[in-house]
Each structure stands twice: as structure tokens, then as C-alpha cells.
Amino acid sequence: MKTSGIKVKFSERLYEKLQPIWRENHNHPFVRGIGDGTLDQQKFRFYMIQDYLYLIDYSKVFALGAVKANDVETMGKFASLLNETLNFEMSLHRQYAARFGISEEELEQAKPSPITLAYTHYMLHASQNGTLAELIAALLPCAWSYWEIGKELNEIPGASEHGLYGDWIKMYSSKEFGELATWCIDLLDEHTAEKSERELAKLEEIFLNTTRYEYMFWEMAYNEQMWPGEA
Ligand SMILES: Cc1ncc(CO)c(N)n1
Questions:
Q1: What is the value of ipTM here, to two decimals?
Q2: How far is the CA of 3 from the centre of ligand 1 (A)?
Q3: Distance from C-alpha of 92 to C-alpha of 90, rounded to nearest angstrom
Q4: Does the keyword Hydrolase belong to this entry (predicted)?
Q5: 122 has a pLDDT exceeding 80
Q6: In whole angstroms, what separates CA 225 from the centre of its chain?
Q7: Catalytic site residue 176?
Q8: CB neighbours of 203 closer than 8 A, spacing ≥ 6?
Q9: If you ran DSSP here, which 8-state letter would residue 209 be given?
Q10: pLDDT at position 7, please?
Q11: What pLDDT, in 10s, does the model give residues 190-221?
């Protein structure tokens, strides 16, 4: 039996599915507040600390990617992503922390909120127990959704020049960050080209779960949500 010759890239299929969640991200008061500069600084401070903790575990997913990769080129890419996250992206957080009077030590010793913990543990679980494709499906929404948000906010006149939030917008709309996101998208497409529908369905579920966690992270930050009974 002949089937249609046109094969949709897996990332294109995911792009369709993630639309409703991304729309919620872009409309979220936290994201809008970064864009128009009205976000409460206290909420941003809370977010920065939680995001730093998040990125520590996210970096470990890249390290696991290097372990699971089957060729030197992919290993090298994961090594670059690990380096970029620890030494480029996270330096943004360290700079913001310094502006808020938070030491690096305090940053690392902060406690993760329930959502931070749930999201990072879900990603680490999928990465440790799954295939390389599952690992990439788990990590992709992070880079991809931030790049989209960064680009969108960068379109707002003056937003990237804002005294506090401008640097955040510059980071996530930057060419370097975009390359990181694009590389993850391409890698997922490469690793899913030959997969069965059953495997793709599993990857889609993982991808959509971390996409949902991205939304929940904005919500958590906006509400400065810690454990019940804790400030
Ligand atoms: C929660 C979260 N998702 C994505 C990114 C982008 O790396 C980030 N810094 N934090």
C-alpha cells in the first residue's frame, strides 16, 4: 500500500498541539508584566531564585543527554548546552541576584517550591529512565517557549531597554538563545524520524507535560507559591 509521501516533522505536529498552552503563557500577567514593565519586583525576585534552582537541575538533563548520546557530535552539542546554561544563562540570574542583594550561596541554598520540584523531578525522571528522544522531548519546551516569549516581548517598543526587565528580554530573544532552542528542535526531529506512532504518542505526552509545567511555573511565580503554611 502506498502512503502519502509528505512527512510532517514531529516538531510541527507538536507546534500545533502546544498552541492553546502557549497562548496562555503569552497572556499570563507575569509575562505581560515583564513586557510592559509593570511586574511587581518582589514577584520577579521570587521567580529568579526558583528559576536558578530550576536551571541547576535542567543543566543535569543536558549532562544526561551527553551520557545517552550515541555519537561524538551530539555529545559535543550537549556539552555546549550544559556550558551555555551554567555559564551564560545562569550568569543573568547571578547578576539579578546581586541587584536584589542575594548572594550566590543563598541562591543555591534556597528551597524549591512544590512546582519547581515537580517540574525538575519530572524532567529528571523522564531523562534518566527514558530514551534519548524522551529526554529531548522533556527539555525542549523550556528553551522553545522562552525563545518565543523573548522574541514577542522584544517586539514591544522600549521593553528591552527597561531598567530591570530589559536584560531578561535581551537574553531570551538573543541569537545565542535562539540557536540553542533551534538545535533542540532539530535534534528532536532527527531522533523521531523513524519512530512508530506508539513511541511518538509517548513523546508527545512528555512534551505536553513539560509545556504545561512551563505555564504552571509562571503561575507559581506570580503567586509566589511555596508549600502550604510557608511564606
Ligand atoms: C522554568 C524555565 N523554563 C525555561 C527556561 C529557559 O531556559 C528557564 N530559564 N526557566
A1: 0.98
A2: 39
A3: 5
A4: yes
A5: yes
A6: 19
A7: no
A8: 10, 133, 134, 137, 188, 192, 195
A9: H
A10: 79
A11: 999 999 999 999 999 999 999 999 999 999 99
Under 8 Å CB-to-CB from 16, ≥6 apart: which residues?
A: none
Structure-block grid coordinates of residue 56: 541547576
Q: Which residue among 34, 48, 51, 84 is best mutated to probe the pocket of ligand 1, counting the most ligand atoms within 8 A of its Cβ?
A: 51
Active-site position among 89, 148, 204, 214 = 214
Residues sharing a CB contact under 8 Å with residue 108, sequence separation 6 or more, in sequence order: 52, 53, 56
Report the pLDDT value the prediction gives residue 1, as an integer from 0 to 100.
47
Distance of alpha carbon 192 from alpha carbon 137, whole angstroms:
10
Does the C-beta of 217 come closer than 6 Å to ligand 1?
yes
Q: How confident is the model over 40-96, as pLDDT tens digits?
A: 999 999 999 999 999 999 999 999 999 999 999 999 999 999 999 999 999 999 999
Which uninterrupted H or E stretch holds 9?
none
Q: State if pTM tops 0.80.
A: yes
pLDDT of residue 3: 53
Give the single-character DSSP code of 38: -
- Check if the beta carbon of residue 143 is closer than 8 Å to that of residue 181: yes
Cα distance between residue 204 and residue 177, in whole Å: 23
What does the block give as the cell for 51?
528559576
Q: What's the pLDDT tens digit per position in 108-121?
A: 899 999 999 999 99
Q: What residue ranges define each of the domains in the chain, with the CATH number in brackets?
A: 21-223 (1.20.910.10)
What's the one-letter identity of residue 75?
A: M
